[in-house]
Amino acid sequence: GTCINSIDTKSQVCSISWSHNLRELVTSHGYSHNQLIVWKYANMSKIAELKGHTSRVLHMAQSPDHKMVVTAAGDETLRFWKVFDVKEAKKRTSILPGHSPSFKGMSIR
């Protein structure tokens, strides 16, 4: 195969999950930021950086309805993120430059 694109994320990439309903994907990261990044596909522009874990994100899985992902990290927490909701995505496309899109998260320890 041929590499068609390469993105420097500035941190370890631990996992990738594609949206089933949107042209987006989310990556989870370790050192040095321990965050999730939501990307617009195919131009790979960052939609959002989701922070909350204090240690490397070790695993990520999608919910059965494909609207949320759950992450598990070395900080001994599970965090639930609403990232692939079609209604929320429509709101994100109307966000003014310089403003943050809304994402919902919850933590369990």
Radius of gyration: 14 Å
> Can you write the helix and strand succession as a string?
EEEEEEEHE
Low-confidence stretches: 94-100
Task: Kindly state the number of beta strands.
Answer: 8
User: Which strand-content bin applies to the residues?
Assistant: 35-45%
Report the biggest beta sheet as strand number plus sense, adding barrel if it closes: 4 strands, antiparallel
The backbone outline, from C-alpha atoms, is globular
* Helical segment count: 1
Structural class: mainly beta
Estimate the mean pLDDT confidence: 87
What portion of residues is helical?
under 10%
The separation of the N and C termini measures 42 Å
Which strand order spans the largest sheet, edge to edge or round the barrel? 1-2-3-4
What can you see in these coordinates?
The structure is a single chain. With 109 residues, the protein is mainly beta. Helix content is 7%, strand content 41%. The protein contains one helix and eight strands; from the N terminus they run βββββββαβ. The chain has one helix at 86-93, and strands spanning 13-18, 24-29, 36-40, 45-50, 57-62, 68-73, 78-82, 104-108. The strands form two sheets. Strands 1-2-3-4 form a four-stranded antiparallel sheet, with no helix packed on it. It has a four-stranded antiparallel sheet with strand order 5-6-7-8, with no helix packed on it. Strand 1 (13-18) and strand 2 (24-29) form a beta hairpin. The longest helix is centred in the last third of the chain and has 8 residues, at 86-93. Residues 94-100 have low confidence and may be disordered.
